[in-house]
Amino acid sequence: MDDDWHHTERLVELPPLIQLQRDALRTTLNKVLKLLDEKERVHRTLHSQTLLESVFPDVLGYYFSKIFDLTFSSLLQCSH
Question: What is the pLDDT of residues 42-62, one digit of tens each?
């Protein structure tokens, strides 16, 4: 055995360390939630006048109607 190796022991209680980690995590996550809430509020304020449908192409409704028609016509054919 190497004489330069020094061994030390110490008693470590895990529950207090785990609680310390949980507290730190809770604090950090609460800060993140506050930041995200604020960013969402600002985003909603900036875009409150923009309708969601305006970000999609006008032709999209046509495609959905075709999908809808084909889906239900297939179901009607299967039920006969």
Answer: 999 998 898 888 888 888 889
Tokens 């900036």 belong to which residue?
A: 46
Distance CA 45, CA 70 (A): 40
- Residue 22: enclosing H or E segment and its boundaries? helix 14-46
Where b means 16+ CB within 10 Å and e means fewer, 54-68 reads: eeeeeeeeeeeeeee
Instruction: Name residue 49's amino acid.
Output: Q
User: How many angstroms separate the CA atoms of 35 and 39, rounded?
Assistant: 6
Phi and psi at 57, nearest 5°, equal: -65, 150
* Cα 73 from Cα 68, distance rounded (Å): 8
The pLDDT tens digits for 1-51 are: 566 888 889 999 999 999 999 999 999 999 999 999 999 999 999 988 988
